[in-house]
Write a structure and sequence with these properties.
Distance between the termini: 27 Å
Strand content: 35-45%
CATH class: Mainly Beta
CATH architecture: Roll
Shape: globular
CATH topology: Pnp Oxidase, Chain A
Number of helices: 3
Radius of gyration: 16 Å
Helix content: 10-25%
Oligomer: single chain
Structural class: mainly beta
CATH superfamily: Electron Transport, Fmn-binding Protein, Chain A
Length: 164
Amino acid sequence: MTAFTPGPDTARAYRDALGCFATGVTIITCKTEDGPLAIAANSFSSLSLDPALVLWSPAKTSRRFPAFNAATHYAIHVLTADQAALCQTFARDGAAFDGVAWVPGAHGVPLIDGCLARFECTRHAIHDGGDHVIIVGEVTQAEMTQGAPLVFSKGSYGRFTDSE
């Protein structure tokens, strides 16, 4: 084990330590005046069963931050193990919907086809979180299918396998 105090001089080590926690991968979508917008996020988490609340945390420095911070409706798409390319596409360009199968959902929010699970949300609250904000959404509609989730850990995509 290597011990350190998180700060500007240890930022890379801190990011690497956080990367030891494997997460699922999501694409968050919203409708904007310029068209559909997406952002890749692994900061998604369930928050409450009653009421049905989830959260995610976009970086304030993201060029897409203003749109998602202002969105009152959005959708969270949990990706399947074979959707790493889709994640990378939206990580580079939030408007890259050409060739992506999607339909407008409630309130015009883009709903991407073929995901493992999808949560349509109405903004419930936004909280400051340092260099990020914590966006809490009330889930108004949820869908799921069978399959393996896309997993992200230590800077790489992978898939979940059962331990024996």
